[in-house]
Every structure is written in C-alpha cells, then in structure tokens.
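User: Design a sequence. Structure:
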C-alpha cells in the first residue's frame, strides 16, 4: 500500500491552537515554504479570511469551495502525495471537465454548511459591504460552474439533480448577500488605494524586480489610452460579441479594461491604430474566417510600449442585477524592451518583455485595504490558471499541463518566437482576435474618450444579465 504524505490531525490541531496569533494579514503559517509541497496549504482547515476565527461559518464555507486536495501519483523520487490547493485565490479551481465539485463527497461536505447559512441567515454574521460583495462573488463562481454542467447535461440524472440541489442553496445564499445602493456606494475604489499605499513604485525603468503600478493609469488619458473593440450604432443582436475573451470566459462575473501607453503619448497610439486598420488587415480573410488574426507583418509597435489588462469585480445589487464595481481582481502588465524576442536587453521572460502580475488577496483587502488588496504573483512558483482555455468543455481537471510558472502562462497565449508572436503580433487586443464566438470584431480597436471609461463594464453587465447561467439563478429563486 502506497504511503500518502498528508497533514494529519496533529498538524490541524496545531494550526487551530495557534489561531489567536494568526490574523487575516498573515497566512504564512498555513502554507508549506519548501520541498515538493512549497506554495500549497498544509491542510484543508479554514483560513482566517472573512473573520479572525477560522471556524467562523463564512470561513468554513469559503474553505469548502476554495480549497481542494490533489493526489499526485507516486514516482521513483517520492511517494504518493496529497497537495491542498487553493486558499486565498481569485480563481475557483474548476476546469471544464472537472468532476470533483459534482461528487457525493463534496455534497456531503458543503450541504450542511449551506443549510446552516440559510437557516441562520448567515449573511447577517458579517455586515461590511466589502466582505459581502466579495463573498457573494465567491459563491457566484461556484454556482456558474455547477449550473453550466447542468446546462450542458453533463453526467447522469442523479449527478445533475445533486448539482441542482447545491445550485438552489447557493442561489439563496447569494440572494441573502445582495447589496443595497448605499452598500454599493461604500465599496472601495481599490486601484488608487494601491497607488497611495506606498507599496508600489511609480516608474519601472525597465527593471522587472521592482513592484510597479502606473500612477496615471486611470487619470492621465494623454499617456494611458484605454482601448475598445466596439463601434457605436452596431446592430443590437450582435452586441454580445463585443465582450472580451477574458470576461466571456468568466461568464461575465468580471469586467476588464485594456490600456496602451506608447513612448510619445496618446496621439502616437491613435495614429498607430489607424495605420494598422489601413495597411495591415486582410479584410477578405477576416470576413471569411470570422476574426482577424494578429498581423505578423503589420507596422511594429514602438520599443517601450506598455500594455495593461485590468480585471475588476462584478457584484449584484438588491434587485439581483449584475453591477460593475471598482474592486481590482488582477493587474497584468507587459512592457516591450525589444520586438524580436531576443534575450537582450535582459527581461524576466528572456524574450524582450517584462511581465508583472498582481492578484487580489482577500486577507490584504480585509486588513485595512493593505496595498489596495493587491499582491504580486511570484515568477518562480508553479501555479494554476483556470480562465480562458481552462474553462473550455474539453479542459481536463487541473488544466491541460498542470501548474506552470507565470511567464509560461503568458507565453502560451501571447508570445512565441517560434510562432512569430512578437511585438504587435503578441497583443491580440489590437484586433480582438479571440475568434468569432469569443466576440470577434469587424475592425481594429479604437481609443476610448475619457468620458467613455465605463462602457465596457456596462456591456459586460448587460451580457451577464442575458446569460443562461443568470437566467437559471433567477429561476432557482423563483424570480
């Protein structure tokens, strides 16, 4: 019988015994810091995230959905090993072909917690609007995963009924957590809070070692140009095509903003996009195949080009309508030091691009909004990504290739010297080249005027309100 390396009751008891010394801003004692389990949790015991007491009902329910075990088979070097994955992460660990959350074991574990939440009106246990909005969002991801499997009629009738039972309870929990207009007004604008925290430098100087956040991203449109791929006066029937691939992959639970900065400012971006549209697009191919691939022979972007993808949370108001918030879930940044993929000048990717990635951490967000809730993702630690390809119906549990380092995740989609995805060809947002079903467009992205900054968020809210998963949620509530 293979020996399983896991955390026993003694470790769990030790963690619990020390809970009085652990607060939401310090979760390090819950994680392995070396060896093959580095970066994973020591057990599936709840974390002190929503309340300082790990055994608080919200923490227990969160842990039941955001921590899951993974058994790694034995090898010549190591015995069979159980890793506890997840924790304070923004992505629900459920890929397209994941069966774990549909299992009887999970139902036995989470049903009592959901029943307790509903019976005791668990939403009243915590009153802070920020925590309520985030917890609602956490449960929303679980609901969407389970209901999507039922919409696609995955598994047998018994499994689908089990999922439907969970969905009904989760929907009622979400309803309890809906926010009033006043509570929405109290939600923080976390990007300027991150800027003002003093945790991030204002200039990167092409040094990937520094923690950089651009000061003027949301306030200096002459430098940072927000772009969009939707053109006004298009027919309403195709508006849902103009949702970014990222927002679509999360079924509208997040909205995204994309920004470019060129060395010479806004006019250089405007002129460049116009030149791409006039000179670089094979319009016949675009019409025949339904999307415009990144132009490998297009006029090049200038060295020093910076690109930002900003992910922000959606929530639901007191009428259960999807509403955009200003809570940043992730900040992804790239700056080009060369356009040919060479190793010089030095970059943290080795192919001429510096990459930075920050993710929202609840334990920071709830601890006096430290760093605006943002923490930089390590470049050298393996991690999972669920969004985009991981949510396809064909995606296996734990993803196609398991864990990857940050750069490899970026390279898979955006850059590859072998495939000539370099320079402009590594920025698919210029032509929104996500494929027809992902919202392909009939043109090149255009700069948004500053007063149009909220149009993408409103479009995602509209998209979600028309999505089948949202309609099913209302059905579960009898609405």
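Assistant: Done.
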């Amino acid at each position: 019988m293979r020996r399983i390396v896991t955390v026993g009751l003694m470790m769990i008891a030790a963690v619990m015994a020390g809970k009085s010394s652990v607060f939401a801003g310090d979760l390090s004692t819950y994680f392995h810091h070396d060896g093959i389990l580095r970066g994973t949790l020591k057990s599936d015991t709840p974390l002190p995230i929503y309340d300082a007491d790990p055994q608080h009902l919200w923490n227990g329910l969160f842990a039941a959905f955001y921590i899951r075990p993974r058994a790694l088979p034995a090898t010549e070097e190591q015995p069979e090993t159980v890793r506890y994955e997840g924790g304070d992460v923004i992505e629900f660990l459920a890929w397209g072909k994941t069966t774990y959350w549909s299992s009887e074991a999970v139902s036995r574990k989470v049903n009592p917690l959901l029943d307790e939440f509903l019976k005791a009106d668990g939403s009243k246990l915590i009153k802070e609007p920020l925590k309520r909005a985030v917890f609602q969002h956490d449960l929303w991801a679980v609901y969407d995963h389970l209901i999507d499997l039922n919409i696609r009629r995955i598994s047998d009738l018994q499994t689908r009924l089990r999922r439907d039972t969970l969905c009904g309870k989760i929907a009622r929990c979400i309803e309890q957590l809906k926010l009033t207009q006043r509570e929405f007004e109290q939600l923080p604008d976390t990007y300027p809070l991150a800027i003002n925290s003093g945790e991030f430098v204002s200039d990167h100087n092409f040094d990937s070692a520094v923690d950089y956040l651009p000061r003027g991203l949301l306030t200096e449109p002459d430098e940072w140009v927000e772009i969009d791929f939707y053109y006004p006066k298009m027919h309403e029937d195709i508006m849902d095509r103009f949702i970014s691939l990222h927002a679509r992959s999360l079924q509208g639970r997040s909205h995204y903003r994309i920004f470019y900065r060129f060395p010479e400012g806004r006019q250089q971006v405007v002129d460049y996009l116009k030149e791409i549209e006039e000179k670089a697009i094979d319009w016949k191919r675009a019409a025949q195949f339904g999307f415009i691939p990144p132009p490998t022979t297009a006029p090049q972007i200038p060295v020093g080009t910076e690109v930002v993808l900003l992910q922000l949370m959606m929530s639901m108001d007191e009428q259960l309508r999807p509403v955009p918030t200003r809570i940043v879930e992730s900040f992804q940044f790239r700056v080009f030091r060369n356009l040919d993929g060479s190793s010089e000048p030095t970059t943290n990717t080795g192919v001429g691009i510096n990459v930075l990635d920050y993710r929202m951490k609840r334990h920071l967000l709830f601890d006096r909004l430290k760093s605006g809730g943002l923490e930089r993702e390590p470049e050298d630690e393996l991690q999972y990504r669920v969004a985009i390809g991981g949510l396809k119906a064909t995606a296996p549990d734990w993803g196609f290739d398991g864990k990857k380092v940050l750069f490899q995740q970026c390279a898979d989609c955006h850059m590859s010297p072998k495939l000539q995805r370099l320079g402009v060809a590594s920025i698919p947002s210029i032509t929104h080249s996500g494929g027809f079903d992902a919202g392909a467009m009939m043109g090149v992205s255009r700069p948004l005027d500053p007063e149009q900054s909220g149009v993408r968020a409103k479009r995602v809210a509209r998209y979600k309100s028309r999505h089948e998963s949202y309609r099913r949620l209302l059905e579960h509530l009898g609405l």
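Residues 9-184 form one domain. The first strand starts at residue 67 and ends at 72.
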